[in-house]
TrEMBL record, chains A, B:
It comes from the Eukaryota. This is YKOF-like protein. SUPFAM superfamilies: MTH1187/YkoF-like. It holds the Pfam family Ykof. Gene3D superfamilies: 3.30.70.930. InterPro entries: HMP/thiamine-bd, MTH1187/YkoF-like, Thiamin/HMP-bd_put_YkoF. Residues 4-83, 122-201 form the Thiamin/hydroxymethyl pyrimidine-binding YkoF putative domain. One of its GO terms (molecular function) is thiamine binding.
Length: 202, 202
């Protein structure tokens, strides 16, 4: 299954170029397992689905150091039928969609509870798009149940849902939503915004 | 049909708060016909589908004055089944999906050719998501044909397509894609990024 993201960083600061460039080393631990391509609009990350959100977390936390108001936006996708299958995107073993939804919710909650703390509070906003046939609404409702019990649920808004909390728990919650719900072979996309250090506190 | 967008502005400058606040007057001509709600992550615009992209264009051009590198991100939606129908979202008359696709492509191209110039070059990146049943692939292919002939087509990337040109033509192209293609009553969402004055020219 092809999986990856188009990722952009927006540091609201005059020296945004330096901030972005100095945060890129946060991706170094992931480079061997990812294809990474940058242009003027975004950086493509293609690689193992279970490492996409940890990579984005480390990148965003690095760019948000020193209390910079910094937003990460990502267009995340798995199973896009227009994309070639790629061995570097193979999911890890044991992510079994045969497991009943209730059990997957519990597994996801356990993983979020064990997420490392990053010491950086973030607010996130996501829209989850299950595309094509084969995405049972049970899967979507299971994901919503998980998000509401994740400990970082914010609120429902028009067109999206918000999460709030430590970057560790928020990105872990996003990753579990991406990996464990929706049709296993289906096309699933997420429109994701994560904000740190906003002066407009919720 | 419920239509609207969650819109965010990201000026890459120390005085981002002043830039954002001083650009909001660009929405004044639209306020009477829109419901507008702001929190720390985005601003909700709910209103007539044919005015969503002009409103976002005017907002983004205003915030990009004085050569500020400024990005607008929007989660745009029409026909979301979870949203109440709303009289302010009623499409204008004459947008008839009974018209053959080839004729709609020509109408869209004519509208883009007549778009006003804004004097601001932008780069845009969009992912278009037709959700649920009823979106014939013919509609999607028709939209892609239109984008490629729009005069502002950039390139195809993983997970998205880019456009480049004057903000007038780019936002007009986006608006036509949103209004004229996909199932008329179906749920259609766009994950949109528009960037002005990037120091990383393509």
């Amino acid at each position: 299954m092809f999986s990856g993201a188009q990722v952009s960083l927006y540091p609201m600061a005059d020296d945004f170029v330096r901030i972005i460039l100095s945060s890129l080393s946060a991706l170094d631990p992931y480079r061997a397992r990812f294809r990474i391509e940058t242009d003027d609009l975004s950086t493509l990350l293609v690689g193992p689905p279970q490492e996409i959100f940890p990579a984005m977390r480390d990148l965003h936390v690095a760019a948000s150091r020193n209390n910079v108001h910094c937003v990460l936006h990502a267009t995340v996708s798995r199973g896009c039928p227009g994309e070639p299958d790629d061995p570097i995107c193979t999911p890890i073993a044991g992510r079994d969609f045969g497991t009943p939804i209730a059990a997957r919710v519990e597994e996801a909650l356990a993983n979020v509870a064990g997420a490392p703390s990053c010491g950086q509070v973030v607010a996130a906003q996501l829209s989850l798009y299950p595309l094509g046939a084969g995405h049972h609404m049970d899967e979507i409702y299971g994901c919503i149940d998980f998000l509401k019990r994740s400990g970082v649920f914010g609120k429902s808004k028009n067109f999206c849902t918000t999460l709030r909390g430590d970057a560790g728990a928020v990105f872990a919650t996003l990753s579990e939503a991406f990996l464990r719900f929706g049709s296993p072979a289906g096309h699933l996309a997420i429109d994701l915004t994560v904000s740190a250090n906003s002066p407009s506190k919720a």
